[in-house]
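Hey,
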Amino acid sequence: MSRPDEIVLDRLPEDVDAERSLLATLCGPGMEARAAKVAHGLSELDFVAPQHKALFGALRSLVTTGVEVNALTLKDRLSIDGQLNGVGGFTGLSELLSGAEVGRPEVLADLLRRKTALRALVKEGARLLREACEEQTSPEELGRGSSARIMQACGSAKGASAPRPAWEAAQEAVLADRSSKATVELPFDLLDKLVGGLHPGNLFVLAARPGLGKTSLALQFALHAARGGRRTAYFSLEMSQEELVDRLGAISGHLRPRWTLRPLSDGETVEAMGFRDFLKGLPLDLCDDAGASPSTIRAALASAAVRMDPYELVVVDYLQLMGDDDPDRARRQNEAVRVGAISRALKVAAKDFKVPIVVLSQLSRDIEKGHDRPPRLSDLRDSGAIEQDADQVAFIHRKWLEGAPELNGKVIVSKNRHQPTGQVAVVFRPSRVDFAPLTLETAPPDQAQPDLGMDPWAQ
Protein backbone atom coordinates (compact mmCIF):
# COMPACT_ATOMS: atom_id res chain seq x y z
CA MET A 1 0.00 0.00 0.00
CA SER A 2 1.36 3.41 -0.95
CA ARG A 3 2.05 6.02 1.68
CA PRO A 4 -0.06 9.22 1.48
CA ASP A 5 2.87 11.31 0.25
CA GLU A 6 3.65 8.76 -2.49
CA ILE A 7 0.09 8.98 -3.79
CA VAL A 8 0.23 12.77 -3.96
CA LEU A 9 3.66 12.82 -5.61
CA ASP A 10 2.78 10.46 -8.47
CA ARG A 11 2.34 13.46 -10.77
CA LEU A 12 4.10 16.80 -10.36
CA PRO A 13 3.37 19.95 -12.39
CA GLU A 14 6.00 20.39 -15.09
CA ASP A 15 6.42 21.44 -18.73
CA VAL A 16 9.58 20.02 -20.29
CA ASP A 17 8.71 21.43 -23.73
CA ALA A 18 8.50 24.95 -22.28
CA GLU A 19 11.89 24.44 -20.60
CA ARG A 20 13.53 23.44 -23.88
CA SER A 21 11.88 26.24 -25.84
CA LEU A 22 12.95 28.84 -23.28
CA LEU A 23 16.58 27.65 -23.33
CA ALA A 24 16.70 27.58 -27.14
CA THR A 25 15.39 31.15 -27.23
CA LEU A 26 17.79 32.53 -24.60
CA CYS A 27 20.77 30.84 -26.27
CA GLY A 28 19.95 32.43 -29.63
CA PRO A 29 22.27 34.95 -31.34
CA GLY A 30 22.25 38.42 -29.78
CA MET A 31 20.06 37.41 -26.84
CA GLU A 32 22.71 37.89 -24.11
CA ALA A 33 21.18 41.02 -22.56
CA ARG A 34 17.68 39.61 -22.54
CA ALA A 35 18.93 36.25 -21.32
CA ALA A 36 20.71 37.91 -18.40
CA LYS A 37 17.49 39.64 -17.33
CA VAL A 38 15.39 36.48 -17.60
CA ALA A 39 18.02 34.25 -15.97
CA HIS A 40 18.19 36.61 -12.97
CA GLY A 41 14.70 35.51 -11.95
CA LEU A 42 15.22 31.77 -12.48
CA SER A 43 17.24 28.98 -10.90
CA GLU A 44 18.07 25.37 -11.69
CA LEU A 45 15.12 24.37 -9.52
CA ASP A 46 12.78 25.83 -12.14
CA PHE A 47 13.87 23.11 -14.59
CA VAL A 48 12.86 19.46 -14.23
CA ALA A 49 14.95 17.73 -16.94
CA PRO A 50 18.57 17.21 -15.76
CA GLN A 51 20.03 18.25 -19.14
CA HIS A 52 17.98 21.45 -18.98
CA LYS A 53 19.32 22.21 -15.51
CA ALA A 54 22.88 21.78 -16.77
CA LEU A 55 22.33 23.94 -19.86
CA PHE A 56 20.71 26.71 -17.83
CA GLY A 57 23.66 26.74 -15.42
CA ALA A 58 26.09 27.12 -18.32
CA LEU A 59 23.99 29.85 -19.92
CA ARG A 60 23.81 31.82 -16.69
CA SER A 61 27.58 31.56 -16.19
CA LEU A 62 28.21 32.97 -19.67
CA VAL A 63 25.80 35.90 -19.49
CA THR A 64 26.98 36.76 -15.97
CA THR A 65 30.59 37.06 -17.13
CA GLY A 66 29.65 38.81 -20.39
CA VAL A 67 30.78 36.00 -22.71
CA GLU A 68 29.05 35.60 -26.07
CA VAL A 69 26.57 32.72 -26.04
CA ASN A 70 26.81 30.15 -28.85
CA ALA A 71 27.14 26.40 -29.24
CA LEU A 72 30.92 26.46 -28.82
CA THR A 73 31.04 28.66 -25.70
CA LEU A 74 28.23 26.61 -24.16
CA LYS A 75 30.14 23.39 -24.96
CA ASP A 76 33.27 24.82 -23.33
CA ARG A 77 31.37 25.94 -20.22
CA LEU A 78 29.64 22.57 -19.87
CA SER A 79 32.97 20.79 -20.20
CA ILE A 80 34.52 22.93 -17.46
CA ASP A 81 31.54 22.19 -15.21
CA GLY A 82 31.74 18.48 -16.00
CA GLN A 83 28.21 18.55 -17.40
CA LEU A 84 28.79 17.98 -21.14
CA ASN A 85 28.10 14.25 -20.99
CA GLY A 86 24.95 15.01 -18.98
CA VAL A 87 23.42 16.81 -21.96
CA GLY A 88 24.45 14.06 -24.41
CA GLY A 89 27.71 15.60 -25.59
CA PHE A 90 27.93 18.17 -28.39
CA THR A 91 25.27 16.30 -30.36
CA GLY A 92 22.82 16.45 -27.48
CA LEU A 93 23.63 20.14 -26.95
CA SER A 94 22.90 20.88 -30.60
CA GLU A 95 19.55 19.11 -30.32
CA LEU A 96 18.64 21.17 -27.27
CA LEU A 97 19.51 24.41 -29.05
CA SER A 98 17.33 23.43 -32.01
CA GLY A 99 14.16 23.71 -29.95
CA ALA A 100 11.34 26.04 -31.00
CA GLU A 101 12.11 29.68 -30.19
CA VAL A 102 9.53 32.18 -28.95
CA GLY A 103 9.20 35.93 -29.21
CA ARG A 104 8.56 36.53 -25.49
CA PRO A 105 10.75 34.27 -23.33
CA GLU A 106 9.53 36.12 -20.21
CA VAL A 107 6.16 34.38 -20.60
CA LEU A 108 7.82 30.96 -20.50
CA ALA A 109 9.94 32.03 -17.51
CA ASP A 110 6.75 32.98 -15.61
CA LEU A 111 5.25 29.62 -16.56
CA LEU A 112 8.26 27.71 -15.17
CA ARG A 113 8.21 29.71 -11.94
CA ARG A 114 4.52 28.91 -11.53
CA LYS A 115 5.21 25.20 -12.08
CA THR A 116 8.00 25.35 -9.48
CA ALA A 117 5.66 26.93 -6.93
CA LEU A 118 3.01 24.29 -7.64
CA ARG A 119 5.55 21.48 -7.20
CA ALA A 120 6.58 22.95 -3.88
CA LEU A 121 2.94 23.18 -2.78
CA VAL A 122 2.32 19.55 -3.77
CA LYS A 123 5.35 18.42 -1.77
CA GLU A 124 4.29 20.50 1.22
CA GLY A 125 0.79 19.05 1.02
CA ALA A 126 2.29 15.55 0.98
CA ARG A 127 4.46 16.36 3.97
CA LEU A 128 1.48 17.74 5.89
CA LEU A 129 -0.60 14.67 5.03
CA ARG A 130 2.17 12.30 6.15
CA GLU A 131 2.86 14.14 9.43
CA ALA A 132 -0.84 14.40 10.23
CA CYS A 133 -1.25 10.63 9.69
CA GLU A 134 1.75 9.92 11.94
CA GLU A 135 0.13 11.96 14.78
CA GLN A 136 3.53 12.84 16.25
CA THR A 137 3.02 16.62 16.16
CA SER A 138 0.22 18.76 17.58
CA PRO A 139 -2.28 20.21 15.09
CA GLU A 140 -1.28 23.73 16.15
CA GLU A 141 2.40 23.16 15.39
CA LEU A 142 1.58 21.39 12.14
CA GLY A 143 -0.58 24.31 11.06
CA ARG A 144 1.99 26.97 11.90
CA GLY A 145 4.89 25.17 10.26
CA SER A 146 2.93 24.21 7.15
CA SER A 147 1.47 27.71 6.79
CA ALA A 148 4.93 29.29 6.76
CA ARG A 149 6.28 26.79 4.23
CA ILE A 150 3.22 27.17 2.00
CA MET A 151 3.61 30.95 1.96
CA GLN A 152 7.29 30.52 1.14
CA ALA A 153 6.46 28.12 -1.69
CA CYS A 154 3.92 30.37 -3.34
CA GLY A 155 6.11 33.46 -3.01
CA SER A 156 4.13 35.26 -0.29
CA ALA A 157 7.08 35.25 2.07
CA LYS A 158 9.59 36.56 -0.42
CA GLY A 159 10.80 40.08 -0.63
CA ALA A 160 10.25 42.16 -3.67
CA SER A 161 11.85 42.04 -6.86
CA ALA A 162 14.88 42.55 -8.99
CA PRO A 163 16.67 45.92 -9.03
CA ARG A 164 15.23 48.58 -11.32
CA PRO A 165 16.43 51.98 -12.58
CA ALA A 166 16.67 54.62 -9.85
CA TRP A 167 14.93 57.21 -12.04
CA GLU A 168 11.75 55.09 -12.01
CA ALA A 169 11.63 55.20 -8.22
CA ALA A 170 12.29 58.95 -8.32
CA GLN A 171 9.49 59.43 -10.83
CA GLU A 172 7.06 57.56 -8.58
CA ALA A 173 8.09 59.77 -5.66
CA VAL A 174 7.58 62.93 -7.74
CA LEU A 175 4.15 61.86 -9.02
CA ALA A 176 2.96 60.30 -5.75
CA ASP A 177 -0.46 61.36 -4.49
CA ARG A 178 0.20 63.52 -1.43
CA SER A 179 -3.44 64.38 -0.81
CA SER A 180 -3.43 61.86 2.06
CA LYS A 181 -0.55 61.47 4.47
CA ALA A 182 1.37 58.22 3.98
CA THR A 183 2.73 58.10 7.53
CA VAL A 184 0.53 57.16 10.48
CA GLU A 185 0.45 59.87 13.11
CA LEU A 186 1.23 59.21 16.78
CA PRO A 187 -1.03 60.42 19.61
CA PHE A 188 1.19 63.22 21.00
CA ASP A 189 2.30 66.07 18.75
CA LEU A 190 5.78 66.28 20.26
CA LEU A 191 6.30 62.51 19.96
CA ASP A 192 4.95 62.50 16.41
CA LYS A 193 7.31 65.33 15.48
CA LEU A 194 10.26 63.56 17.08
CA VAL A 195 9.60 60.17 15.46
CA GLY A 196 8.40 61.57 12.15
CA GLY A 197 5.31 59.35 12.15
CA LEU A 198 5.09 55.63 11.47
CA HIS A 199 6.25 55.00 7.91
CA PRO A 200 4.88 52.23 5.67
CA GLY A 201 7.36 49.36 5.56
CA ASN A 202 8.99 50.28 8.87
CA LEU A 203 9.34 48.24 12.05
CA PHE A 204 8.82 50.31 15.22
CA VAL A 205 9.92 48.64 18.47
CA LEU A 206 8.41 49.89 21.75
CA ALA A 207 10.21 48.40 24.74
CA ALA A 208 10.06 48.60 28.54
CA ARG A 209 10.21 46.45 31.64
CA PRO A 210 6.89 44.87 32.77
CA GLY A 211 4.39 47.18 34.44
CA LEU A 212 5.54 50.45 32.87
CA GLY A 213 2.70 50.79 30.35
CA LYS A 214 3.81 49.26 27.03
CA THR A 215 0.38 47.86 26.26
CA SER A 216 -1.38 51.08 27.25
CA LEU A 217 0.79 53.21 24.98
CA ALA A 218 0.51 50.70 22.12
CA LEU A 219 -3.28 50.71 22.44
CA GLN A 220 -3.15 54.51 22.30
CA PHE A 221 -1.21 54.23 19.04
CA ALA A 222 -3.83 51.86 17.63
CA LEU A 223 -6.83 53.86 18.85
CA HIS A 224 -5.41 57.15 17.57
CA ALA A 225 -4.73 55.64 14.14
CA ALA A 226 -8.21 54.10 13.94
CA ARG A 227 -9.80 57.39 14.94
CA GLY A 228 -7.94 58.95 12.04
CA GLY A 229 -9.52 56.45 9.65
CA ARG A 230 -6.49 54.15 9.42
CA ARG A 231 -7.42 50.48 9.35
CA THR A 232 -5.56 48.95 12.29
CA ALA A 233 -4.96 45.44 13.60
CA TYR A 234 -3.89 44.78 17.19
CA PHE A 235 -2.45 41.30 17.90
CA SER A 236 -2.14 40.49 21.60
CA LEU A 237 -0.37 37.31 22.65
CA GLU A 238 -0.74 38.10 26.34
CA MET A 239 -4.15 39.69 26.94
CA SER A 240 -7.62 38.48 25.98
CA GLN A 241 -9.98 40.52 23.81
CA GLU A 242 -12.03 41.26 26.93
CA GLU A 243 -8.97 42.73 28.66
CA LEU A 244 -8.09 44.77 25.57
CA VAL A 245 -11.64 46.14 25.36
CA ASP A 246 -11.46 47.00 29.07
CA ARG A 247 -8.31 49.06 28.45
CA LEU A 248 -9.77 50.70 25.34
CA GLY A 249 -12.91 51.69 27.24
CA ALA A 250 -10.78 53.51 29.83
CA ILE A 251 -8.31 55.02 27.32
CA SER A 252 -11.16 56.41 25.21
CA GLY A 253 -12.69 58.04 28.30
CA HIS A 254 -15.98 56.13 28.16
CA LEU A 255 -15.54 53.94 31.25
CA ARG A 256 -13.44 53.48 34.36
CA PRO A 257 -10.66 50.85 34.32
CA ARG A 258 -11.58 47.21 35.10
CA TRP A 259 -15.20 47.83 34.08
CA THR A 260 -15.41 44.31 32.61
CA LEU A 261 -14.64 42.77 36.04
CA ARG A 262 -17.50 44.27 38.07
CA PRO A 263 -21.29 44.53 37.85
CA LEU A 264 -22.26 47.65 35.89
CA SER A 265 -24.68 50.23 37.19
CA ASP A 266 -27.46 51.42 34.93
CA GLY A 267 -25.42 54.50 34.07
CA GLU A 268 -22.32 52.42 33.30
CA THR A 269 -24.37 50.08 31.13
CA VAL A 270 -25.45 53.05 29.05
CA GLU A 271 -21.84 54.20 28.83
CA ALA A 272 -20.73 50.69 27.83
CA MET A 273 -23.28 50.57 25.02
CA GLY A 274 -22.09 53.99 23.89
CA PHE A 275 -18.53 52.68 23.89
CA ARG A 276 -19.64 49.71 21.78
CA ASP A 277 -21.19 52.09 19.25
CA PHE A 278 -18.01 54.18 19.33
CA LEU A 279 -15.97 51.11 18.37
CA LYS A 280 -18.45 50.26 15.60
CA GLY A 281 -17.36 53.38 13.78
CA LEU A 282 -13.64 52.57 13.98
CA PRO A 283 -11.57 50.41 11.59
CA LEU A 284 -9.95 48.60 14.52
CA ASP A 285 -9.55 44.80 14.68
CA LEU A 286 -8.36 42.76 17.67
CA CYS A 287 -6.78 39.31 17.75
CA ASP A 288 -5.90 37.47 20.97
CA ASP A 289 -4.47 34.29 19.42
CA ALA A 290 -1.80 33.24 21.91
CA GLY A 291 -0.09 31.16 19.21
CA ALA A 292 0.14 33.93 16.61
CA SER A 293 3.32 33.81 14.53
CA PRO A 294 4.75 35.93 11.70
CA SER A 295 2.78 33.83 9.20
CA THR A 296 -0.40 34.75 11.12
CA ILE A 297 0.41 38.41 10.56
CA ARG A 298 1.20 37.83 6.89
CA ALA A 299 -2.03 35.89 6.36
CA ALA A 300 -4.08 38.71 7.89
CA LEU A 301 -2.28 41.32 5.79
CA ALA A 302 -2.69 39.28 2.60
CA SER A 303 -6.38 38.64 3.28
CA ALA A 304 -7.04 42.34 3.85
CA ALA A 305 -5.15 43.25 0.69
CA VAL A 306 -7.21 40.77 -1.37
CA ARG A 307 -10.39 42.39 0.00
CA MET A 308 -9.03 45.77 -1.19
CA ASP A 309 -9.17 46.99 2.43
CA PRO A 310 -5.51 46.80 3.49
CA TYR A 311 -4.29 47.43 7.00
CA GLU A 312 -2.43 50.70 7.51
CA LEU A 313 -1.06 49.87 10.97
CA VAL A 314 -0.32 46.59 12.75
CA VAL A 315 0.57 46.31 16.45
CA VAL A 316 2.04 43.12 17.95
CA ASP A 317 2.07 42.71 21.75
CA TYR A 318 4.64 41.28 22.27
CA LEU A 319 7.71 39.95 20.42
CA GLN A 320 9.10 37.38 22.88
CA LEU A 321 5.71 35.62 23.14
CA MET A 322 5.26 35.14 19.40
CA GLY A 323 4.97 31.60 18.06
CA ASP A 324 7.29 30.15 15.47
CA ASP A 325 6.45 29.44 11.85
CA ASP A 326 8.68 26.36 11.97
CA PRO A 327 8.41 24.82 15.46
CA ASP A 328 10.83 21.98 14.61
CA ARG A 329 13.57 24.42 13.70
CA ALA A 330 12.77 26.67 16.66
CA ARG A 331 13.29 23.82 19.12
CA ARG A 332 16.85 23.44 17.86
CA GLN A 333 17.65 27.16 18.30
CA ASN A 334 18.47 29.22 21.34
CA GLU A 335 16.07 31.98 22.33
CA ALA A 336 18.16 34.82 20.91
CA VAL A 337 18.27 33.21 17.46
CA ARG A 338 14.55 32.39 17.62
CA VAL A 339 13.55 35.94 18.56
CA GLY A 340 15.90 37.36 15.92
CA ALA A 341 14.21 35.24 13.22
CA ILE A 342 10.78 36.50 14.29
CA SER A 343 12.00 40.10 14.32
CA ARG A 344 13.36 39.72 10.80
CA ALA A 345 10.13 38.10 9.60
CA LEU A 346 8.08 41.03 10.92
CA LYS A 347 10.38 43.51 9.20
CA VAL A 348 10.04 41.64 5.91
CA ALA A 349 6.24 41.58 6.30
CA ALA A 350 6.22 45.34 6.89
CA LYS A 351 8.22 45.90 3.69
CA ASP A 352 6.29 43.43 1.56
CA PHE A 353 2.88 44.83 2.51
CA LYS A 354 4.02 48.46 2.87
CA VAL A 355 2.55 48.83 6.36
CA PRO A 356 4.14 50.07 9.60
CA ILE A 357 4.35 47.36 12.24
CA VAL A 358 4.69 48.33 15.90
CA VAL A 359 6.04 45.46 17.98
CA LEU A 360 6.40 45.52 21.76
CA SER A 361 9.48 44.03 23.37
CA GLN A 362 10.66 43.18 26.85
CA LEU A 363 13.96 44.41 28.26
CA SER A 364 16.55 42.24 29.94
CA ARG A 365 16.67 42.01 33.73
CA ASP A 366 20.12 43.61 33.73
CA ILE A 367 18.49 47.02 33.59
CA GLU A 368 17.15 46.47 37.11
CA LYS A 369 20.75 46.59 38.35
CA GLY A 370 21.24 50.08 36.96
CA HIS A 371 19.48 52.00 39.74
CA ASP A 372 16.72 53.40 37.52
CA ARG A 373 19.05 54.35 34.69
CA PRO A 374 17.38 55.02 31.31
CA PRO A 375 17.27 51.95 29.05
CA ARG A 376 19.69 51.53 26.15
CA LEU A 377 19.51 49.61 22.88
CA SER A 378 21.71 46.90 24.39
CA ASP A 379 18.96 46.25 26.97
CA LEU A 380 16.59 44.78 24.37
CA ARG A 381 15.88 41.26 25.57
CA ASP A 382 17.16 38.14 23.79
CA SER A 383 18.58 39.47 20.56
CA GLY A 384 20.67 42.24 19.08
CA ALA A 385 18.86 41.45 15.84
CA ILE A 386 15.88 43.44 17.16
CA GLU A 387 17.99 46.59 17.17
CA GLN A 388 19.28 45.84 13.66
CA ASP A 389 15.88 45.08 12.14
CA ALA A 390 14.03 48.01 13.72
CA ASP A 391 13.76 51.32 11.92
CA GLN A 392 12.81 53.04 15.17
CA VAL A 393 13.24 51.97 18.79
CA ALA A 394 11.52 53.75 21.68
CA PHE A 395 11.67 53.03 25.40
CA ILE A 396 9.27 53.90 28.20
CA HIS A 397 11.27 55.05 31.23
CA ARG A 398 9.64 55.65 34.63
CA LYS A 399 11.65 55.63 37.85
CA TRP A 400 10.58 53.36 40.70
CA LEU A 401 9.53 54.99 43.95
CA GLU A 402 8.64 52.90 47.01
CA GLY A 403 7.94 49.78 44.95
CA ALA A 404 5.89 51.44 42.22
CA PRO A 405 6.81 53.43 39.11
CA GLU A 406 6.46 57.20 39.23
CA LEU A 407 3.66 58.69 37.17
CA ASN A 408 6.04 61.06 35.40
CA GLY A 409 8.22 59.44 32.79
CA LYS A 410 9.76 59.73 29.34
CA VAL A 411 9.44 58.10 25.97
CA ILE A 412 13.04 57.84 24.79
CA VAL A 413 13.60 57.39 21.05
CA SER A 414 17.04 55.75 20.85
CA LYS A 415 17.03 54.75 17.18
CA ASN A 416 15.38 56.63 14.34
CA ARG A 417 16.23 56.13 10.68
CA HIS A 418 14.27 59.17 9.59
CA GLN A 419 15.09 61.89 12.12
CA PRO A 420 17.34 62.58 15.11
CA THR A 421 16.81 60.74 18.38
CA GLY A 422 15.48 62.39 21.52
CA GLN A 423 12.95 62.07 24.29
CA VAL A 424 9.48 63.31 25.20
CA ALA A 425 8.18 63.82 28.73
CA VAL A 426 4.92 62.02 29.53
CA VAL A 427 2.72 61.32 32.52
CA PHE A 428 0.80 58.11 33.22
CA ARG A 429 -2.84 58.62 34.18
CA PRO A 430 -4.12 55.68 36.28
CA SER A 431 -7.73 56.86 35.96
CA ARG A 432 -7.54 56.17 32.22
CA VAL A 433 -4.59 53.74 32.14
CA ASP A 434 -3.00 55.88 29.44
CA PHE A 435 -0.24 58.42 28.86
CA ALA A 436 -0.47 62.14 28.18
CA PRO A 437 2.18 64.73 27.31
CA LEU A 438 3.65 66.11 30.53
CA THR A 439 2.65 69.72 30.97
CA LEU A 440 1.99 72.00 33.93
CA GLU A 441 -1.67 71.03 33.64
CA THR A 442 -1.17 67.25 33.55
CA ALA A 443 1.70 66.95 36.04
CA PRO A 444 0.61 65.51 39.40
CA PRO A 445 1.14 68.12 42.14
CA ASP A 446 3.47 65.87 44.13
CA GLN A 447 5.71 65.07 41.14
CA ALA A 448 8.65 66.92 39.66
CA GLN A 449 8.17 69.87 37.31
CA PRO A 450 7.80 68.77 33.68
CA ASP A 451 10.60 68.41 31.23
CA LEU A 452 8.83 69.24 27.96
CA GLY A 453 11.20 67.16 25.91
CA MET A 454 14.05 67.83 23.55
CA ASP A 455 13.91 69.58 20.21
CA PRO A 456 14.48 66.68 17.79
CA TRP A 457 16.67 68.87 15.61
CA ALA A 458 18.80 70.19 18.47
CA GLN A 459 21.20 67.22 18.50
